[in-house]
Amino acid sequence: MLPRVLGLIMILGLLACSAEIGSSGDRSDPTPGVAGPPSVDPLLAIQTGVRRLSQAELDNTLRDLVGETSAPASRLLNEDEFRPFDNDYTIQQASDALITSIEVLAEQVADGLVGDPLRRDALVPCVPSGPGDAACFREFLQSFLPRALRRPTTSADIDAYLPLLSFASENNSAVQNDFYTAVRLAVSAAIQDPELLYRVERGTPGSEPGLRELGGYEIASRMSYLLWATMPDDALFAAAADGRLESPEGRRAEAERMLTDPKTREQLHRFHAMWLGYRSIPHTAELVSAFNRETSALIDRVVLDEPGSYLRLFTMDETFVDDSLADHYGLPRPDGGEGWVSYEGTGRAGILGHGTLLAAFSKFEDTSPTQRGILVRTRLMCETVPRPPPNVDADQPPQGAMDAVCKYDRYAEHRDQSTSCAGCHSLVDPIGFGLENFDIAGRYREHDDGLPECTIEGSGEIVGIGDFSGPGELSQLLVDNGYVDACAVEQFLRFALGREVTEYEEALLDEMTEAFRAGNHDFKAFIVEFIASERFARYAQEGI
């Protein structure tokens, strides 16, 4: 085992940075982990806490920092909790088990790096003259540590690592006596540093109590983890160094550059998959891959390739398929084996017509009108649906008193018999039944699977709003009534904050929603202007 002296000293800081906060709530109550009414107007600054990198963020950071591509965080750390996003700092916790897992991760990554001469030599900017080459080791630290800690380093930072060079030449049979032993130890210690594992923001005092102005490097990390889910690249570090990120114009220019990077596409796909809940789809790898290509192509087109109204994500009258997926849906095959084909006459539109969403919200190896209705209420309308009463087994399908055969009748009897469940089911089930013509794999059907006597009418209702039939009409209903754009803004803000939006931020949410609408729902431009805003470069000294 590698010496733990420096690594353990640093990793113990984890316990001081975060604690288990509890379950997140909706905006009717203050967010757990965030103090009550903020002392700084949310319109002026972002209120946030210390955020530990998610598994995906840590894997991406290690990839870009030391060329590690084995996704060690996903392999070795406990799975992140999704509510719906994996970066919610109010439910993160530190523990002895976490510290041990990170230590193992750090040692494995450092071992792999030093064992790969190409990666090792790319990281070390000099050729050591011998095991104890202090000048070369210092040069390595001066090059590596600012990137690892995502800030300029001080002489004290460098000096803390210099004693590790002694392990390169000590007489110890358990340690390989060469210069790269010290490199291995330094990399392992840096990976365990709270400043790598956490997004630490200190800032400087602002114009009023509690307001902090972020420095360029802190802004760079905000930008890179929002748009890329990873550390800043060299260009962003350079923009931080020369002060460009401290002006709206500088942030706008860098954001526009970053949006052209493939990492942004990957992040947008992750954001939508978490928001809309299709991270895990219970079908074959081939079908899931086709579903994901279809949905990713739509996101890319609407947000980046043909920027304009984001509402097209829900109203687009064509979709991207290959021959196999076209056959699966019953659509015409595209020219050339894959491409865009029309939805005309199918009842589909936009992303709600995709297998990703239609397949993700199922249960009991069948479609679930309840789960699909919850999808719409919670993820597209940003409403809260209460949990089932404690005496209700939600892992069992509803059964009617007469054990009705047809699904619609079973659900109707269940609602009529259970007074404790009727209220919620009456809000979600009518929505889900409007999507029943599409099976667990997103294929069109006219009756319950295996039950030709159970004809599916396909009529649905959002209570108090209107009737619809199928994904196309549902999407248009949500768009026309202003739900989709408002909810998209709220989910993006939640993702950017790393927590629930609180009741104290209603004015901020309203302002951002109106700006989104005023900008013709251009999501790309909306992101750029959010980053360029003064509030993005500040934070309120509140929270955990």
Low-confidence stretches: 1-32
Beta-strand content: 5-15%
Overall morphology: globular
Please count the helical segments: 25
E-strand count: 14
The whole-number mean of residue pLDDT values reads 88
Main β-sheet description: 4 strands, mixed
Give, in spatial order, the strands making up the sheet with the most strands.
1-14-5-4
Query: What is the straight-line distance between the termini?
Result: 35 Å
Number of domains in the coordinates? 4
Helix/strand/pairing class, anyone? Answer: alpha+beta
Radius of gyration in whole Å, from Cα? 26 Å
Helix content: 40-55%
Which features characterize this protein?
two-stranded antiparallel sheet, 4 domains, 14 strands, single chain, alpha+beta, about 550 residues, 4-stranded mixed β-sheet
What can you see in these coordinates?
By secondary structure, the protein is α+β, with helices and mostly antiparallel strands. The chain folds into 4 domains: 5-17 and 50-199, no CATH class; 214-258, no CATH class; 260-312 and 319-345, no CATH class; 361-481, no CATH class. The protein has 25 helices and 14 strands. The protein has a 4-stranded mixed β-sheet with strand order 1-14-5-4, with no helix packed on it. A two-stranded antiparallel ribbon has the order 2-3. A hairpin with a 3-residue loop joins strand 12 and strand 13. The longest helix is centred in the middle third of the chain and has 21 residues, at 285-305. It is globular and about 80 Å long. The protein starts with a helix and ends with a strand. Mean pLDDT is 88; it is low at 1-32.
